[in-house]
Amino acid sequence: MKASGFAMTRDLPARHYLPFGIAALVLAGFSAWLGFDWQPALILAVLFVLSSAVLLTMACRPAIEIHEECLAIGRRRILWMDIRRPDRRTSGLHILHLQWRITGSA
Question: What would the pLDDT profile of 17-42 be if each residue is shown by its tens digit?
Fold first, then answer.
């Protein structure tokens, strides 16, 4: 079996998640401060906190690396010989356009 020319492929979380998450958190604080005088601003504060939590969670996802000998997700390494088949997952949420469940030997 010949090896192809690549050594590794790496997928990192998008770089804009972290600054946008921090900006949403700052806007949540500002909206909460405005909420002391104007009550509808508290609705905005809650929405900003929720969007900030989602963005910061997505920013902290581990990197996915594809090596010739294994698949690495963060610190977890899965050897290719331990993977029986990748099963494509379909769900009602199409936010994550590609979801895979890895079926391996237990």
Answer: 999 999 999 999 999 999 999 999 99
